[in-house]
Amino acid sequence: MDTKRFLIFIVIFRVFVFLFKSWVQGGKCTSKARLEGKVAVLTGASTGIGKETARDLVRRGAEVHILCRDSEKAEAMSREVKNDTGREVFVHQLDLASLESVKVCSNQLMKTLKKIDILVLNAGVATCPEWRTVEGSELQFGTNHVGHFLLTRELLPLLRKTDNARVVVVASKAHRYGKMQFDDLHWRTRPYDSFGAYSQSKLANVLFAAELSRREVELQSGVSVYCLHPGSVDTEVHRHVQSSGLMLYIVGLFMKTVKNGAQTSIYCSVEESLEKKTGKYYEDCKEAKPSKEADSVEDGKRLWEVTMDMVKKNE
Questions:
Q1: DSSP state letter for 44
Q2: Catalytic residue numbers, as ranges
Q3: Residue 223 is part of a domain; what is its CATH number?
Q4: Which residues constitute the domain of residue 265?
Q5: CA nearest neighbour of 294 among 212, 186, 188, 179
Q6: What is the DSSP letter of 257?
Q7: pTM (2 decimals)?
Q8: Sign of the alpha-carbon torsion through 296, 299, 305, 306
Q9: Nearest CA to 146 among 186, 175, 179, 92?
Q10: If DSSP codes are grouped into helix, strand and coil, which group holds residue 223?
Q11: d(CA 218, CA 212)
Q12: Do 258 and 235 contact (CB within 8 A), yes or no?
């Protein structure tokens, strides 16, 4: 190939890559909703899509509280957003892998806040080694599901104090590969598979969101629940994934930017047309259909009861 043809190939290739990456960025939240007087609480918002979601809610006028394991990162995020927006972000320490930490944090919020309008369950861990929570749960299931379950249960009184509160559960399309192994949720009797554990925890997220929605509708509490897949986003949640340089480049072509990855979280938090439209699942700022397993009302109820037993053992 001569030099001229090679240069033409490079230009065409770069244009293709640019157009492809633009296409995979997905939908955008176009809502202009303002949030003055609203209180938003987010987990895991010191980095990644949680940080971008929190920044957006601050810009819309909300009082934002972030619950994070790493207080140093959270304080740095708070300073950055204050410099950017001129508004305060309130930081609270929370380790979702410790139910005691969840109780301490939720008790603090119950004493500090009069209500919560938006609760975004964003924090998560993905495809990590076979690690355990303080209570001995498989880390991904314990962090992504059990910790968030307890936090939400504890904060429901504050959510029910407003007519249109929203709980936004950040799940993943990986839930489609998940199976609820109720006889071994914590991988004690079978060989550990990091992606299997991750996909099970994300399926638990979707089932939890649906069951919470059903229960709040039955109570007529006014709390609406939304579940979402943010897309494949290049964030710290993938820090345990091992890949070669070429593989990272190829995978990167399919990755959203952090700002674009936050769009569906923001959409579910603020979009006016979703008011009271509870119990649905979203991708790219539009409603989507979850897996058949995620639609199981029976599994949702069973997961709720099993998780209740887990948290009660530590009360």
A1: S
A2: 198
A3: 3.40.50.720
A4: 33-312
A5: 179
A6: P
A7: 0.87
A8: negative
A9: 186
A10: coil
A11: 10
A12: yes
Residue 14 lies in a domain: no
Q: How far apart are CA 40 and CA 186, in angstroms?
A: 32
315 residues of the chain, pLDDT tens digit each: 567 665 665 556 554 444 444 434 468 999 999 999 999 999 999 999 999 999 999 999 999 999 999 999 999 999 999 999 999 999 999 999 999 999 999 999 999 999 999 999 999 999 899 999 999 999 999 999 999 999 999 999 999 999 899 999 999 999 999 999 999 999 999 999 999 999 999 999 999 999 999 999 999 999 999 999 998 655 444 444 444 444 444 444 446 788 999 999 999 999 999 998 999 999 999 999 999 999 999 999 999 999 999 999 877
What lies within 8 Å, CB to CB, of 15 at 6+ separation is none
pLDDT digits (tens, 9 = 90+) for 143-201: 999 999 999 999 999 999 998 999 999 999 999 999 999 999 999 999 999 999 999 99
Note whether residue 171 is domain-resident: yes
Q: Is residue 247 part of a domain?
A: yes
- Number of domains the chain is built from: 1
Place of tokens 């924090």: 123
The Cα-based distances of 36 to 59, 111, 117, 195, 214 in angstroms read 10, 21, 11, 40, 29
- In order of 86, 144, 183, 239, the CA distances from 234 in angstroms are 28, 18, 34, 9
**Angle (nearest 5°) at CA 203 between 140 and 164:** 100
Cα 65 to Cα 51: distance, rounded to the nearest angstrom: 11
Between CA 105 and CA 56 the distance in angstroms is 24
Helix (H, G, I), strand (E, B) or coil at 127: coil
**Is the residue at 12 inside a domain?**
no
